[in-house]
Design goal:
It contains three helices and four strands. The protein is α+β, with helices and mostly antiparallel strands.
Length: 97
């Protein structure tokens, strides 16, 4: 999450919940390009995907992201990393050897 200024409590809580850092662009030490990019986009903060695509925006003067409901459910899955003991023997993917 990139922010134009120090994030407020709601953005800090969201960043913590997502397991990401809220990074003020002033702390990046660039030449002001990212701060100018946020200003040009009328944004106080952006949530970036790992491939650098903007997932959501906090508009200038806003307090929260605009489309949280659209993407929040995509961040969590109900699948477990390994089959449970109860379902493993019945799995279609079990080895037959």
């Amino acid at each position: 999450m990139l922010t134009a200024a120090e994030p407020g409590p709601s953005l800090t809580a969201l960043a913590h919940g997502l397991g990401v850092h809220a990074v003020p662009v002033a702390d990046l030490g660039d030449d002001g390009t990212l701060a100018a990019w946020l200003r040009a986009g009328h944004a106080d903060a952006v949530l970036l995907r790992p491939d650098r695509v903007v997932l959501d925006v906090v508009p200038s003067g806003g307090r929260d992201f605009t489309s949280t409901a659209a993407w929040a459910s995509l961040l969590h899955t109900t699948r477990s990393p390994a089959p449970s003991e109860r379902t493993a023997p019945k799995s279609l993917l079990r080895s037959t050897t």
